[in-house]
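Write out the 3D structure for:
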Amino acid sequence: MTNVIEQLKRLLAAERAGVDALSRLVEQAPTSETRTLFSQIRDDEARACAGLVGCLARLGRRPTRAKADFATKVLALPALPDRVRLLNWGQRWVVERIDGLLARDLDKDTRAFLAEMRAVHLRNVSRCDESLVELDRQREVQVDRSFDETPQGIAAGRNLMTERNQSTIDSAPTSLEAALLACGRRPVEPKRVRLVSSALLAALRRTGTAHLYADTADVEELRTLNTAAGGGILAEVDGNTVNQPLAHRVLDRYLTGDRIVTCARELRRHRPEMSSRALLPYLYTMLLGWIGNDIANVFAAGRPWEVSLQLHMGALSDPETARALGRALHAIVPSCFVKVPFRPHEPQSLLIARDLEAQGIPVNFTSTFSARQIVVAALLADVTRTNIFMGRLNQGFRATLLGEHVDLEAQRALLRLRSEAGAKTQLIVASVREWETFVRVAGCDVFTAPCEVLGEFLAQTDVPPEALTSQLETSYEDRIGIADEATRAVGRERIARLWQVEPGFLEFLTDYRASAEYRGLGDGERLRRRFEEAGFGDFFYAPDVREWQILRKSKLPDLAAPLAGRLAADTHMSLLADGDFVNQQEAIDAALLRRVAAPVLYEDENTGQGRDRVPGPRPFGPPEGRS
């Protein structure tokens, strides 16, 4: 009970700071609508203070007069949009603390109050996110030269980080979190463009597909795709996805100029004791913010643009850091989905996704390959999006239509969960290798495909718009076409479990997600043991050092290796995806270290002399597991 009391006192101090900060923001509001918004949120914070005092009184405790210094940090930022972003970060922090309290043994009135306080904070986070769109439009900034449609302008736009005014920080943040937000946000004037509908993509939408994304981190690649729209932007393409391999492709242009070094120094100033490797997830998150905003500013065109940005792979071993960086990403790029990869050797990846969603941050749960993994993501993590890497399934198992069959079975499983269990998760058809996939699984919730494949689909004439129909009732089970070599190595039963969801497994998940144990669960190892106790231990696996060496050689399975016949097929494929992402992350980290270490990453505050604290890059990766 002592811990509950201390947490309530801490929340009270934070809410008092929120009242102070919002009182000042009311005075700075540029419009009557914004003033009303800040006033209403300030009043909500004041009511929360009163309610928390009541909670403490019920426990026989008198409140202190303590007040957090968060208001000072918010007001230290000179630009109003950045102040609102940091305010929203604080509101999400409060939600996370409330979640921890709700997992404790509380009296009925305290529990009811905290649940209401949580809902109010999530609602206010959403309202602030909406207001930021207009606040950013009002901020006077230099228009990015990449918007110049002349050949000279397009050439200049290939390097989005070379403008002199982008090489310094325009504020003096007072914490690492504030510095990350200030450095990561790179607003520009959104370009007014014409949206043009594609008859073929519109027909795909009519089959039931809700979204079409491009797999790219490259503004110019997306610009080339959109030349098909006659100078406008394709209305049906409404987002993009960015993982480590895609970020790596555009890394050099973001390392040009001195902005990255200036931002690294600013981050270091707030945590001088932090090792260079510990700083890398923050630098990478900042880089993702630049990428996400660059693309959204060019292609959103006044509509929602959903950009998925994948967390730093090293951060996922530390749930608290992963959640903090997820919150920061969403604050820097308000339209983003935080990509959290499923890591079979780190079950806490599911809990990280669950916790971010509970804080109102949409998650794209990735590195998934089977219907049962999709069901777990929907029921236990309640994610907004999840994926089937269908092209990799076909390639890895030498199959013709295995990926398509798994996609359709997973989609049907999600439709049942939406109807029967209130699930919200949508399926992304990912790892699309050929344009025919759009036809074969038309009607699935979302597609994400390379720009080249999207372009081929738009250019083809074999399938006219009127021929596109929903395939949600189609089964390819008798046309999967798996190579005999794959069947012998993996086993027919293991392969079939890619699309089958056992009734007992579904029953276990349904019961477990409703349990008090799972609602308060913060231990990934306990989650693994619970699956094992229920008879589903093959869902997770921690490879040893020798096995990781094999897994990191290729993102496709070595059918001749023992792992292919020993692991569950989906678990094996997820581990291979993880190994590939880690390889790419290490290459990005090495490049970041080389760039920010020259000439110096840290400046001694006493002498003013630069000291290079950066060691030579050393590989990091998944835990070594068993030796």
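The first strand starts at residue 195 and ends at 196.
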